[in-house]
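thread: overnight batch results

M.L. [08:02]
morning all. the overnight job finished for the chain we discussed friday. pasting input first so we're all looking at the same thing
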Amino acid sequence: MAKRNNLTPAEWEIMEVVWALGTEATVREVLERAYPKGEKAYTTVQTVMNTLAKKKLLRRKKTGMVNFYRPTCSKDDMARAEMTTMVSRIFGGSIPALANSLLSLDDFSLDQIEEIKKLLDEKARELREGDP
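M.L. [08:03]
and the structure it wrote out:
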């Protein structure tokens, strides 16, 4: 995936809805799903979606008077890109430093720690078997 600008909180909100809607979405559909109580104006959502199109995270196609937007990357791909940037910027690229910081939060249950251990064991097995 090409390097992209990190998303602002408003851009994440919009992208979450576009991903949830599936193949394509209009500004009106996103507005109604993300802000059902009118928390944001139509023009605000439209501006954010056009910014996302300029960042090449949404592809815009006009049919008649309506713009249809479709995501150009998956949520998982975007999350990976954002995590890579964050780990690089905050932890100097060190995954163990990130893990240490997370574990120091003291918000973990024993079940969550067991789940993390299981994920780490699975990843280690994949790496040993040469199947990244």
